[in-house]
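An instance as discussed:

___
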Amino acid sequence: MLLLRESKYLAVPWKNGGGVTREICREPPEPAPFDWRLSLATIDRAGPFSHFPGYQRTLVLVRGAGVELDFGVHGGATLARTGQLAIFDGAWATACRLLEGASSDLNLIVSQERAESYPRCVPLCTAERIETAGWTETYVCCVEGPVEITTTATGTLMLGPVDVARCREDDGPVTCRPATSGAASVFLASVRRRPHPEAP
């Protein structure tokens, strides 16, 4: 298990030049096209999202009052509560409107051809067991916390808000629990590469 702290995330420009995102992880590294990428972006004004044809996107509100997403003919979504998420096609023309001031959002972008994912947000009232078997990596991001995360390989570590634990299958099952009596929740993203089609 690798612990990734918010203070170490790498700032990179949006694909459309409309802002800056802080990259948490990217597989594989540049210059190859990524199979998946997890990042944290602060949205401080209304405008269009970058276009990512061939990718599925998951947006998770982690700070601020939230955003309203307009997918045109595909409808829309409102993220107004910490931990709410929206899953949509990166090829859709997507516009964003702020509900009340800037907000920060996690962005998981996964190739529809080369990979698959299982993203979800989980509120923590007691200990929650997370299986890593069958997945290349499982990302555990603290949305509300702090959160304690335990594996048999590494023992117990503490996650503050928007810190990420990057877990592999050989870490075994992961247990998350609230570290205090306050509200706690995590965003979980299990990802794996699709098998290559058999050559003729």
In short: The two ends are 38 Å apart (CA to CA). The CA atoms of residues 125 and 181 lie 9 Å apart.
